[in-house]
Design goal:
Helix content: 25-40%
Number of strands: 8
Radius of gyration: 17 Å
CATH class: Alpha Beta
CATH superfamily: Vaccinia Virus protein VP39
Strand content: 15-25%
CATH architecture: 3-Layer(aba) Sandwich
Mean pLDDT: 92
CATH topology: Rossmann fold
Structural class: alpha/beta
Low-confidence stretches: 215-221, 223-227
Order of helices and strands: HHHHEHEHEEHEHEEE
Number of helices: 8
């Protein structure tokens, strides 16, 4: 087994060699497009496989049965494009990506279309996307905004009187402070998943989102799942 296959299976679970081949094709296309348009900072290319592709792929193992995904602020495709490629081999799998930058959206459409991924790219602001998207089971976002703002943006999909989607949000070492700040306006169930890539990071699994009315008292509005 190649080192890359072992790394991919460590973070994403059982995947095929064809999935690895597709992810490597995406990596090559990302590098090619990045030379022409501003897909990402130059430093991203130095750690593209480990820090971005594998970091995105770990979401797949957290919700192994989910088939309907939505990625907000997809940018160069992390995690949305990576998830789209992984979903090719999940029966019924689909993902919608929301990206307002026309050049980045063109990249996503071209590359994912070429790979046959079950993905739809919406070129619009997140605030305009709710009416355009199908109901998702999982909403993702990575390096998009601090958690309080992120919850505001994702609320149309997450806060639906207990019937909303579940969020999987990548967060770095400041995640605890962001959670505390979010408690002033929102209550939700939370599961923290340790990142398999960033030792200081977490994947925040958020469900049952509801706005606090009137404003609550902070951390007492955050419910740990299972408590």
């Amino acid at each position: 087994m190649s080192d890359r296959m072992a790394e991919l299976r460590h973070v994403a679970g059982t995947v095929s060699r064809e999935t690895l081949r597709r992810l490597e094709a995406f990596e090559a296309e990302f590098r090619r497009w990045a030379a022409r348009i501003n897909l990402a900072a130059p430093s991203t290319l130095d750690v593209l496989w480990q820090r971005h592709i594998l970091d995105s792929a770990q979401l797949f193992a957290i919700k192994p049965q989910a088939t309907a995904w939505l990625d907000l602020g997809s940018g160069g495709g992390f995690p949305g494009a990576v998830l789209a490629i992984l979903l090719i081999e999940r029966p019924g799998g689909r993902i919608e990506l929301v990206e307002s930058n026309n050049k980045k959206a063109a990249f996503l459409r071209a590359v994912l279309g070429g790979l046959g991924a079950p993905a739809t790219v919406h070129v619009c602001r997140i605030e305009e996307a709710f009416a355009r998207t199908a109901p998702p089971q999982i909403v993702t976002a990575r390096a998009l905004a601090p958690l309080p703002r992120l919850l505001d943006l994702a609320a149309p999909w997450l806060a639906q009187d207990g019937a909303g989607a579940t969020a999987l949000f990548h967060k770095g070492r400041e995640y605890a402070a962001e959670l505390a700040e979010s408690g002033d306006a929102w209550r939700f169930d939370l599961v923290e998943h340790a990142s398999k890539i960033d030792p200081a990071g977490r994947i925040l699994e958020i469900s049952g989102l509801a706005r606090v009315v009137p404003a609550g008292r902070g951390n007492d509005t955050l419910r740990q799942a299972g408590s």
